[in-house]
Amino acid sequence: MSGSAPVVWINGPYGCGKSTVTRHVAGLLPEALVVDPEDVGHMLWRQLPDGLREEEFELEPLWVPLTRLLVGRCARTYGRPVVVPMTVSRPPVFERLVGALRGEGVDVRHFTLVADASTIRGRLRRRMAERGEEADEWGELSWEGRQLDRCLATLSGPRFGTHIWTADKAPAEVARELVAHLRRHGGALADGRVRVAEP
Description:
By secondary structure, the protein is an alpha/beta fold. It is built from eight helices and five strands, in the order βαβααβαβαααβα. The protein has helices at about 20-30, 35-45, 65-80, 90-105, 115-130, 140-145, 150-155, 170-185, and strands spanning about 5-10, 35, 80-85, 110-115, 165. It is globular, with a radius of gyration of 17 Å. The two termini are about 30 Å apart.
């Protein structure tokens, strides 16, 4: 798959802005497909009784191979950039997804959005308020808030580069920075085979 349109994996802690940045990235890459592995996880959970569901998608035995298959087949079949917004913070799962896709020849460009914990907690509070959600059995910031320290500690490591700081930037600015990085580092976005919209 060398030289073809890339898979752009946008990682980061829950609440760091992956979904919003993804919408802006898709606007800058008009031909891009957005493949959301959360949809894969929810599809899987609809098939399983409560007793067989794990706490999160990363721990589901079938979620990794289903996600890898979908992302890889989309990249090969359509020849368009595939943007994947998904938190993957466990190194073994990361290797079975991103590492395995790269091993199959898929051009995966991986980015991790990062910010300080205080900024992310503030974003989670605003998101819950906008959705009308309240504290639950997981605490003030629900399940996502409970994962923050673990995700920040793991995702800051070099395995999860390229890191993009987001705390003092609007989502559109983060998306422009990400796409500019793609264009600087070769492949279909650098040589004009993939159209990039002017911001």
